């Protein structure tokens, strides 16, 4: 009787241990999947495509791994080696991807410098292009590899459990899958709540260490059943040392590799919960002010030497013709630059809605700022600290409803959002969203919207204008201007007034207040387009859920810049 009780207790201990290990490994597996998907989107550029492709490839690879697990004769030894291999891949994959992609990007410049080639003869096609395209596939390579290895875990641990029981277990697979699903749910929660706010190398290392610890516990507890255990213990120790080294130095290495992808040196790089933020600095010589570039997920958002063109074109036409400028709403614009220009009109209050708290805090004045932060805060004239400004951290899609419930009315609304390169952004370019903004405007209010490039993404640009028209505005007009850092860029204004914004500008003698760069005549001229520019009958409006503008934008930039950019 006592022997039976002891045996039952031992089996219970085995079950608790194995099921717990499976839960931890499932959490790690899901985090690896999200981490690689997230980084693939950052490296490759086509965020939505990269994420879904990565997830799909990893799921298929997990299936193949589950099928291949039957080839492993010893489940104890096989499982122990499996966890060491997954941890090695997990801790090193981001470093390897960053290194391969960066070196492939700078290879043409290196070749040109070695052979003293002029700028117009830098090698870009043929083998060089092929190597770069292969380098861009390295995130998928690691996704397939790690997915294959993860797929072997459940079959092997199920065989371990049956070996311990000495019999076929009727509900074995169901029990293991239950632990797997619960662990995956925990992994998803950890990713959202913790991992997204960490540096990507730190997230990878912490996940790999959890993976490694589970493997070491398995190795020690089933020591007698495992062949080559001394070698395995040494390998686990080496992986742990590697993980600690990557945790200490990985971020610096990633930054050095990132530096190679930018024309100017990177002085700051960090990841918020929503995006990667990068600042570059171009030194122009003694006594001259450096030029700072601000990038989100590798895409230039503004350059300090010409951002005044973009922001004056976004803000001044709408604010100049609005009947009043007392109460203004800005959607996006967490860098405070559009806000800076809005404050030139002496409003009584400004509400700014931005999703990313860390972005807003970065561009807000604080004590003991780094020199580049101080330069950027001076660029926005400390606008985010102005007492007239209320900053709302949240999703504009829902925060707009909160403003409507408060019966808040605005004289002007400035929409300074990134391009619609993701479905989450597409909804903020929908007729539904613009209809709600229409309801927040005063009787003679004016709306101004950043509208991507009319040259590079013509259909997306025109669709934005037609979508705003469908939202009920009396007059909708589009205009453009060349920005050296971007090329030709476009904006849209919609008003409730009886006459158009362009006509109102023509009735003015000059812009009031005056701008250091933009004039009334230059603003009026910006409304001119080539003959027949707007006559494309195939361009549709963007209704909620259709992702129409996202599709137009994605197709245009892929066609313009290549498959891997959006």
Tell me what you see in this structure.
- It is a multi-pass membrane protein.
- The active site is at residue 416.
- Catalyzes the irreversible transfer of a propylamine group from the amino donor S-adenosylmethioninamine (decarboxy-AdoMet) to putrescine (1,4-diaminobutane) to yield spermidine.
- Residues 251-496 form the PABS domain.
- It is an enzyme of class 2 (transferase).
- There is one protein chain.
- By secondary structure, this protein is an alpha/beta fold.
- The chain has three domains: 18-106 and 137-261, Growth Hormone, Chain: A (Up-down Bundle); 266-299, no CATH class; 306-561, Vaccinia Virus protein VP39 (Rossmann fold, 3-Layer(aba) Sandwich), CATH 3.40.50.150.
- 57% of the residues lie in helices and 13% in strands.
- The protein has helices at 2-44, 47-68, 75-114, 126-135, 138-151, 153-165, 172-193, 200-221, 229-261, 307-321, 337-343, 357-362, 371-379, 396-405, 423-426, 431-440, 458-470, 501-507, 520-525, 548-561; strands at 266-271, 276-282, 291-296, 299-303, 327-332, 349-354, 389-393, 410-416, 441-450, 475-483, 487-495.
- The strands form two sheets. A seven-stranded mixed sheet has the order 7-6-5-8-9-11-10, sandwiched between helices. Strands 1-2-3-4 form a four-stranded antiparallel sheet, with helices on one face.
- Helix 3 packs antiparallel against helix 8 (200-221).
- The radius of gyration is 28 Å and the shape is elongated.
């Amino acid at each position: 009787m006592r022997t039976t009780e002891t045996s039952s207790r031992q089996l219970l201990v085995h079950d608790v241990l194995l099921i717990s290990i499976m839960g931890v490994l499932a959490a790690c597996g899901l985090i690896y999947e999200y981490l690689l998907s997230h980084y693939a989107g950052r490296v490759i550029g086509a965020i939505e495509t990269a994420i879904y492709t990565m997830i799909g490839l990893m799921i298929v690879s997990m299936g193949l791994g589950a099928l291949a697990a039957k080839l492993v004769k010893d489940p104890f030894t096989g499982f122990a080696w499996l966890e060491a291999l997954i941890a090695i891949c997990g801790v090193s994959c981001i470093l390897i991807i960053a290194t391969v992609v960066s070196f492939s990007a700078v290879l043409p410049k290196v070749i040109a410098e070695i052979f003293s080639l002029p700028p117009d003869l830098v090698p870009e096609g043929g083998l060089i292009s092929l190597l770069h395209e292969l380098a861009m596939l390295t995130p998928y390579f690691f996704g397939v590899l790690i997915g294959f290895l993860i797929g072997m875990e459940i079959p092997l641990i199920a065989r371990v459990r049956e070996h311990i029981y000495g019999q076929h277990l009727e509900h074995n697979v169901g029990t293991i899958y239950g632990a797997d699903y619960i662990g995956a749910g925990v992994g998803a929660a950890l990713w959202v709540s913790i991992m997204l706010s960490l540096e990507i190398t730190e997230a990878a290392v912490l996940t790999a260490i959890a993976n490694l610890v589970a493997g070491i516990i398995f190795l020690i507890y089933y020591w007698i059943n495992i062949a080559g255990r001394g070698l395995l213990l040494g390998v686990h120790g080496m992986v742990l040392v590697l993980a600690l080294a990557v945790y200490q130095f990985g971020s610096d290495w990633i930054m050095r590799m990132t530096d190679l992808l930018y024309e100017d040196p990177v002085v700051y790089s960090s990841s918020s919960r929503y995006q990667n933020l990068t600042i570059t600095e171009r030194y122009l010589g003694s006594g001259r002010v450096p030029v700072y570039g601000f990038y989100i997920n590798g895409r230039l958002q503004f350059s300090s030497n010409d951002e005044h063109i973009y922001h004056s074109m976004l803000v001044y036409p709408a604010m100049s013709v609005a009947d009043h400028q007392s109460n203004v709403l800005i959607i996006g614009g967490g860098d405070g630059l559009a806000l800076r220009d809005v404050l030139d009109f002496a409003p009584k209050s400004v509400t700014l809605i931005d999703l990313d708290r860390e972005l807003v805090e970065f561009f807000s004045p604080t004590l003991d700022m780094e020199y580049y932060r101080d330069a950027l805060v001076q660029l926005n004239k400390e606008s985010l600290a102005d007492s007239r400004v209320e900053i709302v951290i949240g999703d504009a899609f829902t925060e707009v409803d909160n403003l409507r419930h408060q019966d808040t009315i605005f004289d002007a609304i400035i929409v300074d959002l990134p391009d619609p390169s993701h479905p989450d952004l597409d909804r903020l370019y929908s007729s539904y969203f613009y209809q709600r903004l229409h309801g927040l405007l005063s009787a003679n209010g004016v709306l101004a919207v950043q509208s991507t490039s009319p040259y590079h993404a013509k259909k997306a640009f025109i669709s934005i204008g037609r979508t705003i028209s469908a939202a009920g505005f009396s007059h909708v007009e589009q205009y453009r201007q060349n920005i050296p850092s971007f090329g030709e860029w476009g904006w849209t204004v919609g008003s409730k007034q009886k006459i158009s914004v362009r006509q109102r500008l023509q009735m003015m003698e000059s812009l009031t207040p005056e701008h250091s760069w933009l004039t009334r005549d230059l603003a009026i001229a910006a409304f001119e387009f080539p003959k027949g520019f707007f006559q494309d009958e195939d361009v549709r409006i963007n209704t909620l859920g259709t992702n129409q503008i996202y599709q137009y934008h994605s197709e245009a930039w892929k066609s313009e810049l290549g498959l891997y950019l959006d």
